[in-house]
Design a protein that fits this description.
Length: about 280
C-alpha cells in the first residue's frame, strides 16, 4: 500500500455493525489521488454507506479511515469537507423553492441550502455562472431550480460541488433516473473532470457496469454483508466468477470500446416460481 500522502482515500479494516447485522465487513481499499474509482455490488451490500463513511457523515464500528492523508476523528471534519464533495442522486436537497439555478450553484461557496443570509461577491456570482456554463447549463441561470429536469439538477449539483475545487468527489449513483442521452452526457462530463493538472480523485457508486468510465482503474466489488469480493484493476475485478459470487446470480460481463456491460439470464424468485 502506498503512503497516505499519495492517497485520496484509505480504508483499513473498516467495519460497521448495526443491531447485530453486519453492514460492512473489514474493508481494506485505497484510492490514489486523481484516480478514477468505483464501488459496485448488489442492493444492500453497503455501497452508499461506505461512501458516507468516506465523507465523514457516518463512523465505522471498527477500523480506520484516512481522507486526503488525514485520519478521520483526529482532524477537524469541517475543514476536511471543504476539500471533498459528496453528491447523492437519491438524496433530497431542500433548497429554497424561490432559488434559481444560479442561486443553487452559488450556495456551494457557503455549504448552505439557501443564500438568503449570504452575501456572494460579484466574483463569486461570476464564477458560479461560468461553472454552470461548464456543465452545459448556459441560459438556465435564472430558471427556478424546482423546474429543472433530473439531469439538469444533477449537473447543477456537480457545478455547485466544483466551486471549491474539491480534491475528492464522491458520487452516489449520479445517473439514477436519467434517460440514455442524459446519462451519456453526464458520463462525458465526468470524463472531462479527469483532465487538467488539478483533476480530483473520483469514487462513483453504481449498480450498472456500463456506467463505469473507461478511465476507471480501481474497482471495489462488495457482496452480501458488505464483504469484499474483489478489489483492484477493473479487468481483474469484473469477471463472471466475481460478479456471480457477489450477486448470487449468474452474471456474464462483456467489454466493448473500453466500456463494460453485463448479461444475466432472467429468472423469477424461487418461491414465486413455485406459486405460478
Amino acid at each position: 500500500m502506498k503512503s497516505s500522502t499519495s492517497s485520496a482515500l484509505e480504508l483499513n479494516s473498516v467495519t460497521l455493525e448495526r443491531q447485530d447485522a453486519m453492514i460492512l465487513t473489514a474493508i481494506h481499499w485505497t484510492v490514489q489521488r486523481r484516480q478514477n474509482a468505483a464501488i459496485i455490488g448488489p442492493n444492500g451490500c453497503g455501497k452508499s454507506t461506505l461512501l458516507r463513511i468516506a465523507a465523514g457523515y457516518l463512523w465505522p464500528t471498527r477500523g480506520e479511515v484516512k481522507v486526503l492523508g488525514k485520519l478521520l476523528g483526529a482532524y477537524p471534519i469541517s475543514r476536511l469537507r471543504q476539500r471533498i464533495a459528496l453528491i447523492e442522486a437519491a438524496a433530497i436537497y431542500p433548497f429554497d423553492q424561490t432559488m434559481t439555478t444560479l442561486d443553487v450553484a452559488c450556495s456551494g461557496f457557503f455549504g448552505t441550502l439557501t443564500i438568503a443570509y449570504c452575501n456572494p461577491t460579484p466574483r463569486q456570482w461570476k464564477t458560479a455562472r461560468q461553472t454552470l456554463e461548464d456543465v452545459g447549463l448556459a441560459g438556465r441561470e435564472n430558471q427556478l431550480w424546482s423546474t429543472l429536469s433530473t439531469g439538469q439538477r444533477m449537473r447543477t449539483l456537480i457545478g455547485r460541488a466544483l466551486l471549491n475545487r474539491p480534491e475528492l468527489i464522491l458520487f452516489d449513483e449520479p445517473s439514477a433516473g436519467l434517460d440514455l442521452p442524459a446519462r451519456e452526457t453526464l458520463l462525458a462530463l465526468l470524463t472531462q473532470l479527469r483532465t487538467g493538472p488539478t483533476a480530483p480523485a473520483i469514487v462513483m457508486v453504481t449498480h450498472h457496469l456500463e456506467e463505469l468510465l473507461p478511465e476507471t482503474s480501481n474497482v471495489l466489488l462488495l457482496g452480501a454483508g458488505g464483504r469484499v469480493v474483489a478489489a483492484g484493476l477493473a479487468s481483474n475485478v469484473i469477471t463472471a466468477r466475481n460478479l456471480t459470487d457477489a450477486y448470487g446470480w449468474p452474471i456474464h460481463p462483456l467489454r466493448r470500446h473500453g466500456r463494460y456491460f453485463a448479461h444475466a439470464k432472467p429468472q423469477p424468485w424461487p418461491h414465486l416460481r413455485q406459486r405460478l
